[in-house]
Amino acid sequence: xxxxxxxxxxxxxxxxxxxxxxxxxxxxxxxxxxxxxxxxxxxxxxxxxxxxxxxxxxxxxxxxxxxxxxxxxxxxxxxxxxxxxxxxxxxxxxxxxxxxxxxxxxxxxxxxxxxxxxxxxxxxxxxxxxxxxxxxxxxxxxxxxxxxxxxxxxxxxxxxxxxxxxxxxxxxxxxxxxxxxxxxxxxxxxxxxxxxxxxxxxxxxxxxxxxxxxxxxxxxxxxxxxxxxxxxxxxxxxxxxxxxxxxxxxxxxxxxxxxxxxxxxxxxxxxxxxxxxxxxxxxxxxxxxxxxxxxxxxxxxxxxxxxxxxxxxxxxxxxxxxxxxxxxxxxxxxxxxxxxxxxxxxxxxxxxxxxxxxxxxxxxxxxxxxxxxxxxxx
Length: 378
Prior knowledge:
By secondary structure, the chain is mainly α.
């Protein structure tokens, strides 16, 4: 019996009845990918994600504070690691599949734009000005990254991940801060993950639901910690009721929320926060919006990020209008963009705007800034 088969049998014995089992995966985009004798299907997905170039670039992408000079400010890479740890803590306590959780958690932000949610918003606005039917959402672009843009050692397009990991990535972004009871949509079918859908709803697995909630837990307290380091606020400025119910530090907030979820979700086909903790987390998230995300310092960062993203999009869009000029350009940015397009087997009818989004969304904060400077300053 192979190591993989042994692991699959262990999953049947150890994991909860509601957990996703590796051998029951609903398959990959290209089903002729032979199974590994050592790793389960979800273990292979984790490997494909962490060895991708897109994963490496997360260490230079913004979480909240753009291109931070402070080494202790959270980056997108650290965020996905925190999500993975928090989600696995919950998942293991509930008897869920840790490998599936890890794949979703580590891959959920692969398609995030530079400069965090500001970059996402500006890219979407650039697309909307071209065609109101175009849109950019980082969770859907993350699915595009793993399905189309990322490459493996054999140069195949896409990582060819399992349905369950792809679904968790596409469905990780909650519709509102009010979510306290996440029930998996087990009727969801693989063809529902077709590119272009604006909303994939609730994940198809409990593991995906765990990551969806862990994503909020990972940033709600850490963003406060970073805001304190950046001089935006102090811990004692948090509302007293929130400090009393959730805790006075990031670690206390995480512990309170994780413990509450485990207690309220045990032996249920749902991931649940108690009404009290759910209300407190919602209030804290809304407080972060006012105190941190709308602070003067963040607004100054947003202006810089907006100029960079809009400038890049406009310059690349103009360049694509004249392919011959683009191909002969001496500018480093245009040469790199032309090479990027040449290396991808894009369909002939793919809109130019999508090529620009693919390129810009894959940039790190620092690379986007340097590219902007190379176009407009030199």
